[in-house]
Amino acid sequence: MTNIETKRFEKIFNKFTNSKKINEGILLIENTNGEFSLCKGYGGKGLNSPFLMASITKLFTTTCILILLEQGKLSLNDKISEYFDENIIKGIHVYNGKDYSLELTISDLLFQTSGLPDVYLEGKDSLKNKVLLEDFYITFSDMIDRVKNLKPHFEARKKGKAYYADINFDILGEIIVMVSGFKLSQAYKKYIFEPLGLSHTYLSENENNRIPQVYYMNQVIHRPKLVISSGASGGCITNAYELMIFIKAFFGGKLFNKNIFNSLSIYNKLQFSMGPIYYGGGYMQIPLNGVNNFFMGKGELVGHSGSTGSFAFYYPMRDLFFVGDLNQMANPSLPIRISMQLAMAAK
Question: Which CATH superfamily does the domain covering 3-345 fall into?
Fold first, then answer.
C-alpha cells in the first residue's frame, strides 16, 4: 500500500467517526501476509477492545457446518426434518396454502433461500421494537412459534430468490449441537477458537460473561439476555485483532476444505431492504460495480456485517481484509457503506 492509499483509508474512517451518530469505533485493515496493517481507533476503542459481533457470528456457524460436512456427519441436502420432531418443524413454511416445512434443507438455511420470515423485523410485535425498550430472553421454541405466525416470502429454493432471516441460522445452530454432541459454545471453541488461538472471542452463555453495550443513536443499550438468546445467528463477542485472524482463516482455507468452500459461491440477491447485498453459502457478497450501488468500483467484497455496526470483509481483488465496529444500531447500512468505501479507496 502507498502512503496515499493509507491516507485515503484514514480519511474514510475519520469521516464516519466524525458523525454525531458514532460514539466509538475501530478499524483494522491487513493483507494476507500482514505486510500491510493499519489500525485506527475512535472514542477509546482499541485493537483489543471487545465488541458484539452480531450477525458476523453467522460465519462461525457456517464454519461449523462446513467442518461437520467435511467429516461426513451431515449433508447440505439433508432435510431439517431429519433433525427435529415433525411437530416442531411442521407449519414454519406454509406458502399459498401448501406446507413446505418438511422439505426444507440445510442448504436452504445456509444460503438464505428458505423464504422464511425474519422475526426480528416482521410482525406487529417485532423484536426490533421490543429490544429498544427492554432486555429479554427468547428461546428457540419461542422463535419457531413466531415464525409460524408469519408468512414466508416465497417457496423454498425459488430461482434467484433469497431472504435474510436470523431463524435460518438459529436452526443451523440447533443442528450443530445435535450432530457434534457439543453445546454451541463448545463447538465454536473446538472447531474455531482453539485451532486459531482465539482466547478473547466467545459465545456468551450467561450474564456473568462480559457483554459489551451498544448504541442506538446516543442511547446506551445493554441487552445481555437478548445477546445470550441470539446464539448461532448473532451472539458472539470478539475484538478486531482476533476477528482479523478468523476472517483470514475463513477465506484462506485454514478451517475447512477449500473445495467445499468453493461450492458456496452461488449468490442470490437479498430483499430490497438489504441494499446491494447478495448471499452465498453462509456469507455476504457485495459487488462493487452493481447498478444498485452509489459507488462504482471493481470486484466484490465477501464476508459479513452485523446490525450493531460490526464488519468483516475480504476484498480479493486487492488482497485486503477490513474488520471493525462502528457500534451503532440505528443505521445497519453503516458497516456496509464503510467497507465499500474502503475497498473503493484501494486503487
Answer: DD-peptidase/beta-lactamase superfamily (3.40.710.10)
